[in-house]
Amino acid sequence: MPSEAVDLTGKHAVVTGGARGIGLAIAGALMDRGARVSIVSRSVLSLTGGDGSPVPFRAEADVTDEAQIAHAFNACRQAQGPIDILVNNSGIAESAPLIRTGRAMWDRIIATNLTGTFLCTREAAEDMIVAKWGRVVNVASTAGLGGAPYIAAYCASKHGVVGFTRAIAAEFDGTGITVNAICPGYTETDMMRQAIANITRLTGVSEDDARGRLAQSNPEGRIATAEEVAQGVVELIGSSRNGVALVVPGFAVA
Ligand code: NDP
């Protein structure tokens, strides 16, 4: 179903890391389609509703912390009802050659990107099982489908997210709950700007050259926007597809 036709009126969607970047675009797109949105993240909310538009509920949690997740998701339930939709968007990226990838960096990336996705999905799944309906979309990456240099921990975490998605999709098959992944290439957010800063610092190339290299490595040879990632998320939520990894730009199924 095209994203414009998706009606989420009456649905409660939790978006992790929804206060900025891709998560902010996803939260906005879900609200535009009528969902009640709750945001779970560590930082201050940027969606203010100052123009009279609905404001998402916000609960603070670090997605690596099981107790904080339980507390935050319960606060979301109390404020907006059982959880129908979960978008696991929270994530971090760091790069280093293998021999300079320290254990602490590895653990941090796996804990946030992979373990956080597992913990939040398990928490929200209880409501979906009761309702016999639910949508989980995991924000993975093209780095979850193929390898790239200097991002072993990030690649491993995102391959893990895609594998987790496929496993849970199989487990829930036929229950009314679907679990899919969206796999953006480089997308215009703080995370990508940091990647460009790292490349210019480490290699001495200009910012434009670094940006061009990242664009070239993306599907369609261009940088994605947070809004088109959000569009893909809405399309997955509006469809009955299960266990799919949708690549952005282009919306090809991997
Ligand atoms: P940003 O750095 O702009 O945003 C990351 C978000 O994750 C923030 O909202 C942050 O919220 C949240 N977050 C990070 N760590 C935690 C934590 N421990 N607990 C709770 N929330 C956390 O990045 P993007 O918007 O670019 O990234 C969003 C997702 O998209 C990530 O999973 C990323 O891997 C993925 N992605 C991004 C791409 C890109 O090029 N930008 C490409 C492919 C995938 P807060 O700090 O407030 O907690």
Give a short summary of the structure.
By secondary structure, the chain is α/β, with parallel strands linked by helices.
Overview of the structural elements:
The protein has 7 helices and 8 strands. The protein has 254 residues and is an alpha/beta fold. The protein has an 8-stranded mixed beta sheet with strand order 3-2-1-4-5-6-7-8, with helices on both faces. The longest helix is centred in the middle third of the chain and has 29 residues. The site of NADPH dihydro-nicotinamide-adenine-dinucleotide phosphate has 28 residues, from helix 1 and helix 5.
Task: Identify the notable features of this structure and list them briefly.
about 250 residues, alpha/beta, 7 helices, globular, binds NADPH dihydro-nicotinamide-adenine-dinucleotide phosphate
Low-confidence stretches: none
The number of distinct β-strands equals: 8
Structure classification: alpha/beta
The biggest beta sheet is recorded as: 8 strands, mixed
Helical fraction equals 40-55%
Distance between the termini: 18 Å
Strand content: 15-25%
Count, helices: 7
Could you say which small molecules are bound to this protein? NADPH dihydro-nicotinamide-adenine-dinucleotide phosphate
Q: What series of H and E elements makes up the topology?
A: EHEEHEHEHEHHHEE
**Cα gyration radius (Å):** 17 Å
- Overall spatial form: globular
The average pLDDT value, as a whole number, equals 95
Neighbour order of strands in the largest sheet: 3-2-1-4-5-6-7-8
